[in-house]
Amino acid sequence: MIIGLDFDNTIVCYDRLFHRLAMERGFVPCELPATKRSVRAHLRSNGLEEEWTMIQGIAYGPRISDAEPFPGVKEFLGQCHSRGIDVAIVSHKTRYPYRGEKYDLHTAAHTFLNRHGFYESRRTGLSSERVYFECSLGQKLERIGSLGCAAFVDDLPEVLAEPAFPAGTHKILFDPGGIDDGDQGYECVTSWASCADHLLSRLRVVA
User: Fold this and answer.
1) Alpha-carbon distance 153 to 174, whole Å?
2) Confidence at residue 182, expressed as pLDDT on a 0 to 100 scale
3) C-alpha–C-alpha distance, residues 89 and 130, integer Å
4) Which of 21, 41, 171, 188 is least surrounded by Cβ atoms within 10 Å, i.e. has the fewest?
5) What is the per-residue pLDDT across 43-73, written as a single tens digit (0 to 9) for each?
6) Residues paired with 171 in a beta bridge
């Protein structure tokens, strides 16, 4: 049995990093809430779409190790490992940013996972061989299908709602803000602890 996980904004929390990068460049006021959503909304409402794209390239590239894992995600991996459940990371991530310097975003993501202890396989059961960075959404969905994921956790409702999403894969929306109403053919969790409580108990029943 295998569970698939998305990477950006599912494993990695960028909230404080995006706020810090925008503050460093004078793009946002200091009182703006330190969330990625707030930074994006502020920049776009002020006609700074290119600046937003540039910050994304920096956050996902050379500064990614300054981001943080979501609380509980490594513990979730450990619980899966102790139960003999394999985990793979499958992400739709271009190799290079759309704007700015040509950083290798795939290498940067592996650096994050390594520096934050995700490749401590004895504890997490994860290795770089189980991490797949696909360059298109279609390729991501194909990978989820070819791996035969029993469940997949993603932060984007539109990914889970894709008609090409593999049939038979249980869909979990990772929604720490509690914004989604969960009425689109997937289930919502607001933390990795609640994901473990919900998903691992369900898989035990199925098994």
Assistant:
1) 6
2) 62
3) 6
4) 41
5) 999 999 999 999 998 999 999 989 999 999 9
6) 152
Give the pLDDT score at 18.
96
Mean pLDDT of all residues in 124-132: 97
- Which CA distances in Å does 88 have to 23, 134, 153? 34, 13, 11
Please give the model's pTM, rounded to 2 decimal places. Answer: 0.91
The alpha carbon dihedral of 186, 190, 196, 201 has a sign of negative
Please compute, for residue 171, the number of CA atoms within 13 A of its CA located in the half-sphere on the CB side: 22
- Which domains occur in the chain, in start order? 2-13+67-206 (3.40.50.1000), 15-66 (no CATH)
Using the Cα atoms of residue 158, residue 162, residue 166 and residue 170 in order, give the sign of their dihedral.
Answer: positive
Q: Say how many Å lie between the first and final Cα of the chain, rounded.
A: 9
Structure token pair of residue 174: 């990772």
Amino acid at 36: K
Cβ neighbour number for residue 108 with a 10 Å cutoff: 18
Q: Which of 6, 9, 12, 13 is nearest to 132 (CA)?
A: 6
